[in-house]
Amino acid sequence: MSECTHANHNELVIKTRDGMPDIDTMFELADFFKVFSDSTRIRIMSALFQGELSVCCIAEILNMEQSTISHQLRVLRRENLVKVRKDGKQSYYSLADDHIRQIFEMGLEHIGE
Amino acid sequence: MSECTHANHNELVIKTRDGMPDIDTMFELADFFKVFSDSTRIRIMSALFQGELSVCCIAEILNMEQSTISHQLRVLRRENLVKVRKDGKQSYYSLADDHIRQIFEMGLEHIGE
DNA sequence: ACAACATATGAATAGTTGTTCATATGTTCA
DNA sequence: TGAACATATGAACAACTATTCATATGTTGT
Fold first, then answer.
1. What is the pTM of this model?
2. What are the DSSP calls for B47-104, one per residue?
3. Phi and psi based region of residue B50 (left: phi greater than 0; alpha: psi -120 to 50; beta: remaining)
4. Parallel, antiparallel, or unpaired: how do β-strands A90-95 and B82-87 relate?
5. How does pLDDT run across B15-30, given as a tens digit for each residue?
6. Which residues of chain B make contact with A9, given a CB cutoff of 8 A?
7. What is the nearest CA distance from B85 to chain A, expressed in angstroms?
């Protein structure tokens, strides 16, 4: 760990540290955004914006293996971003959080779409 | 790729695909959020919310190696989330995008802080 | 009870990513 | 010009993650 020598350094370090969120909060935040960092999950959420879907529908919409989708839905479930409704053989997934749309919008704005 | 057999399947697949964003856009979106998915980068951005900082200040605030910070700042620069101002020996970094605050807020709301 | 189907899950693998170390580049000041 | 400092960067390594395959669990209709 290097030591800085320029003026006001220590003071600034302390003051900035003090204004930052709790360290655990920042780790949680990173974990939360990690869910959005994979294109398969983004595509699943994009599909679910249009309403609930069964696992095999999602698989076919994305043209991917059913087990891939199941694994990724588990990740989304773990972070409370989707909910499941079981009906017979099928599991219907839908979005569980209103923030998702807003977060998507802001991302799209940034990348300029 | 499994084939679903339940009613309305093909129609739903087509319709849903049609309502989804462009596939390239979804990949870009994932890449954008990937930047927020690491705790070191989250901590750097949290520090920068309070104003511009030199690399070595950030390193000391986070108590991490200077080179780690430099590498991560490069990632943030690549995605246009920070900008640099060079002054003598030092590089001062600051946030480059107003969306960052909003995205943070929404993440914090979701995790319930 | 059995066959067909839908979903979930464990293990293995390949690809990606964050950190560290060593070092290069560039700046300031004596 | 040389020493001290600030930052950037390449290579190596360890840790993590997404996907696939195989298979288990659970449901429906015959």
1. 0.92
2. HHTTS-EEHHHHHHHHT--HHHHHHHHHHHHHTTSEEEEEETTEEEEEE--THHHHHH
3. alpha
4. unpaired
5. 999 999 999 999 999 9
6. 57, 60
7. 16
